[in-house]
Amino acid sequence: MEKYLFEFIGTLVLVLLGDGVCAATSLNKSKAKGAGWVVIALGWGLAVMMGVLIAGPVSGAHLNPAVTLGLAVAGQFAWADVLGYIVAQMIGGAAGAVLVWVFYRDHFDATADEPDTLLGTFCTTPAIYNLRRNLVSEAIATCLLVFVILALGTKGNALTVGGIAGNAGAIGSWPVTCLIMSIGMSLGGATGYALNPARDLGPRCMHALLPIKGKRDSLWSYSWVPVVGPIIGAAAAAGLYLLVF
pLDDT tens, 216-228? Predict the structure, then answer.
């Protein structure tokens, strides 16, 4: 249960800071409004870092159902813990989104005439609505994410500090932070790079449930893409990892 608790807390922090940077840069009367895509990519990368620093020592800081499934398929994580991790991550993502709404409540009210902007602070939407290609984009980006995370744990990336062996992915959040920033800047333009069902579906549900002034529908016709795409990508990454390494 301790591992599940830390997955919940880590994912909550990830979404609080990640959706928080989206709110800060897009909501009316925010001092950060218009800061742009680079700030969003940096903010999401650092959000992942904070979540990893919290949960890493206890749960391994998956913070993402796709990562959990990818590690399990690759034989790096016990299948018995998969469901508990995913439930904790989904609840954590939803809770983080609620805190963003509470924090920026006045700014959400000031943006009531921009329903698409309101939705975008909770979850991803595609730049061009093409479900097949959106799915492929999410799968490719998540495949890269999970493959690099798995590669960080290989012998070639091992670190030894004071005679204690570890790996760059397990003891340092910085490589994963750089990876998230790189994916956001390079591959984020098509779909907003969800990469993570807990980051997208949980907050999307909160968008639907919260009494947000001026909100639109939660774009449920697209909601399956940031769930299925990352799962496909994670499974592909695990298979590729087993083949290559």
Answer: 999 999 999 999 9
